[in-house]
Amino acid sequence: MSTTARVHAARHGNRVRRSWWRTAIGVVLTLVMLFPVYWMVNVSLTPRTAIRAGRLFPASPTLEHYAIVLREQLPHLLTSVVVGLGTVALTLVVAAPAGYALSRLLLPGRRVLNFLLIVAQMIPAVVMALGFYSIYSRLGVLDTIPGLILADSTIAVPFGVMLFVAFMSGIPRELLQAAQIDGASHWRTFRSVVLPVSRNSAVTVALFAFLWAWSDFLFASTLNRGGGSLRPITMGIYDYIGSQNQEWGPMMATAVVACVPTAILLVVAQRYVAAGVTAGAVKD
Amino acid sequence: MTISTKRMVAVAAAATALTVLTACSGGDDTSSTDSSTGTSTGGGGTTLTDIAVWDPYPQHDESSDWAKYLQSCAPEGTTVTRTSAATADLLNNLTSAVKEGNAPDVVLLDNPAVPDAAVSGLLASAADVGMDTAGFDANLAGPGTVDGVTYGVPIGANTLGLYYNADILEASGVDPLTITDWDSLNDALAAVTAAGHKGITFSGIAGEEGVFQALPWFWGAGAQLDDLGSDQAVEAGQLLSDWIGQGYAPKSALTDNQSASWDLFLTGEYAFAENGSWFAKAASELTDFSAVAMPLPGHVGGAAPAPTGGEFVLAPLQKKDAEAHYANASKIIDCLVGADNQVKTADALGYFAANKDLRAAQVAADPIWTPWATSIESAQGRTTDLGPDYTAASAALSTALQASLNAAGDADAVRSAFEQAAQG
Amino acid sequence: MWFVKTSSAAVLAAPTEADEVVVPPRARRRIRPTTWAALGFVAPLLVYVVVLYAYPLYENVSMSLHRFTRATYVTGEAPFTGLDVYREVIASPQFWTTVRQTTVFVVVSLVVQYVGGLALAAFFRRSFPLSSLLRALFLVPWLMPIIVSGTTWQWMMDADSGVLNRFLGLVGIDPVWWLNADHALASVTIANIWLGIPFNLVILYSGMQGIPDELYEAASLDGAGAWRQFWSITFPMLRPVSAITLLLGFVYTLKVVDIIWIMTMGTGSSQTLATWAYSMAFGKGSSAVIKYSEASVVGTILLVVALVMGFVYLAAQRRQEER
Predict the structure, then answer these.
(1) Residue B62 burial (CB < 10 Å; 0-12/13-18/19+)?
(2) Inter-chain contact B263–A51, Cβ cutoff 8 Å?
(3) CATH number of A64-270
(4) Does B156 touch chain A (CB under 8 A)?
(5) Stretch(es) of chain B classified as CATH 3.40.190.10
(6) Staple partner for A80: which of A233, B16, B244, C281, CB 3.0–4.6 Å?
């Protein structure tokens, strides 16, 4: 082998070794972070008599909790997925154009609006929920899924707008000017240039919108009390909290069952947060 | 400002004003759609085909005895829609529902919340609804009467007792029959912990549940809820505080509710558990060890007066079609707690019937209830004396209790906690 | 030097007012259409904000200016009290203690979450085997219903049989009563930090992906080590994203109720303004007495605090624009 080739090989070998070392650290960090999740799985496999004994591994593992969950909770899981995806769609539709307007189109009064968005996020969620209850009650949309989607989106929209503004501010001016010089309208520019380039931020916003809708309990319990099977999983899990008796085994099992499909969704979504979406798009 | 900005501000202001005005003007909106009670008959119809019942039993799903029994109570031509919510949330849900005119036909509220609900104008009186209020024991029906007006009747009753792990007591050489007062209980606790086991579990969580669990000791010492600074009150607090300090009770009592406390007892490591009669059936079915129930001991002997648990069945105040709603409500309520039905309902829920004779029959029919017979006779309603003032008294006691448990035996801290509670 | 050379340094700066002036003649005719287009883009948001946020906000402030009880909440006829309730709340013995506890909770959570998230984002920046899987797994804590994660932390922190004390015992530390009145603040802060790290990680990582690789390559060609690269490239270029992460983190941490409530019900030192407002609005926790007005007052105070932070953020953003 030539010297350069040997140097390349050595450097490649170094890089591979360093990568595996990083993987090892990464795995350790993830395990520490996920320890409470492990505990959840641990309890879900433990019979009630041993739950508070605090053993590191399930003492006499049982699947009875999972049997209960699979029998009772699947409609709730499906509802949560529908509400989550609906919230993502609504949030992106409202927040992305607004983010573009506030960051690139020099909308007059944008500072005021930015400010209002911060204020909006500070309104205590309980106040929002009670306010919605009166409005929904009068409009007759209590206990409906679209109503819940609208309410859940209020958690994500201000965040989405602020995030889009932060990210879209970083789109190189040259990209937008190139589109304008080619005669594209603002809508066209938005659709064909800004959106593809904002894929990272869109995925991030979508991720949080889904997660917040998925884990929302307050709006669901205020606005969807009578929904029956059409209640999301956060309420379904509360069925195991009786007036004097709480069943932790089935609750933990529900949480595990709920985690699995959404964890897969997360892994898939993370692949879209890729490097270099803006880099290389502009030639110096 | 540019013209377009001014226009935008004007539009936004107008929209805001419009929204606020429409929202605020709907105070007593008579055209609201009653979505949660499902009234579909329009145009002056006074028969309602959907009856809404709210209960605090989410653990009983559609296939449970309770749900099926409730469905069977639906009068000819109607359907019962049952919604469950956690006890702590039910009163608040009811408040917002009554405000919006969405109240259910029947609601089951935890008994200490009844005076609060009555005084806040959430309930219709039993007379208006046509409820039969005779045939219930006085000590159990007490919370349902506020300022001389009766609003509802108990659906059943439960109370607290002392469960013990017979195997541990035997192994530690403690005879349960000798546990008749606080001293003998403390001796027993010392004996079991010396033998390598754990002592007693109870719930000291902040709020009504912790107060519920502390009342047998509080009343057992002779203290009263209107005088929290008395020596007897401090003694009760000291008892619990010492249990934590000496390691007889788990430190998690500070945050455990009754179910969590029961989970600890189920591990088989604890000799005693202060818990409710609703676990009596589960206790009798345990296979890992033998769990037996007995009355809670008073300070110097006898059974301590325990608080009554259990819900009251009530009819919320209705703004629209009140007659029809109340007619349906009284039919359902009669089906639930009419003289012939009390035992059926109580069995479905795991409670005692709230009538002495019916209860005697229950006890005779099932031996697991025998240790509870005396406890329920001497049980006291929490709100019977104080009425709506109970809520504030309970809050003060809860603060004092939490401080006592935190003190873990420190006598000065316990005393000052109760004195502060008496003032506040 | 490499951190000045490339024009991409301007990439993450916000557009300045000056841009409006330097405009080719063809585009100058577009200034008014731009504003209309901007309005069109932002219209859904405006309607959304006005309809869904204005009414609850009005309700909140209005409730704090009246004296509401459960009875008057139902009838709606509460007496107007002006600023009386505000005075009562601020004069109450709990107020300043709660403010102090809230400050500790928010500042410690924010700092540790941000630093932790930043470190992890930097760690994950360059991909290595399994990196995308591990990054996704870091979000799994957010999939657990809060009732479950809160209770799990409560059990792990159990003084007698909790896992945490067992691990401490392995290294010779005495068991700690994590959830008593004195230690409750530390305990809920730890759990909250655990909850907040994924948020910071995801956003900061996303922001880092926007930094062109050429900068790093140029830097390493010039012999700069990883640490130097981080401080001179990554950190400065992340400023707008960091600012938004810190602001949002501040606002969200200020509002946190669930995790504290499930672990301790806001007792002892773990009472923050948010949990206090929650317990008064719903009659939960130690006292079942409903105090709607007092809760609204605390809610309004929280709102004002967040507004102040918002001003700070906007001022910082304006200073950045003028650079």
Answers:
(1) exposed
(2) yes
(3) 1.10.3720.10
(4) no
(5) 50-154+311-350, 160-308+381-423
(6) A233
Q: Do A19 and C128 touch (CB under 8 A)?
A: yes
Domain segments of chain C as ranges: 93-321
Q: Decide: helix, strand or coil at residue B357.
A: helix
The C residues from 57 to 116 touching A (CB cutoff 8 Å) are 57, 59-60
Q: How many CB atoms lie within 10 A of CB C253?
A: 23
> In B, which residues are within 8 Å of C73 by CB distance?
95, 99, 120
The contacts of residue A37 (CB under 8 Å, 6+ apart) are A259, C140, C141, C144
Copy the structure tokens of residue A60.
């006499």
| pLDDT tens-digit series, residues C16-43 | 433 344 445 444 444 456 677 777 778 8
> Is a pLDDT exceeding 80 seen at residue A274?
no
Residue B385 has a CB neighbour count (10 Å cut-off) of: 14
CATH class for the domain made up of C93-321: mainly alpha
Q: How many residues does chain C have?
A: 323
**Residue B34: predicted pLDDT:** 36
Of B277, B304, B306, B301, nearest in space to B291 by CA = B277
The helix/strand/coil state of C233 is helix
Domain assignments of chain A as residue spans, ordered by start: 3-53, 64-270
Average pLDDT over residues A271-284: 45
Average pLDDT over residues A3-32: 77
Residue whose structure tokens are 């841009």: C19
Tokens (6 digits) for B419: 């004195």
| Strand B79-84 to B50-55 pairing | parallel
Q: What angle do CA B282, B286, B290 make, to 5 degrees?
A: 115
ipTM: 0.81
Domain B160-308+381-423 fold is D-Maltodextrin-Binding Protein; domain 2 (3.40.190)
Q: Tell me how far apart the alpha carbons of residues C160 and A274 are, in angstroms, rounded to a whole number.
A: 46
Question: Can you give the pTM of this predicted structure?
Answer: 0.84
Give strand pairing partners of B158: B309
Six-digit token pair at A102? 């506030």
- Superfamily holding B50-154+311-350: Periplasmic binding protein-like II (3.40.190.10)
Count other C-beta atoms under 10 Å from residue B424's C-beta.
12
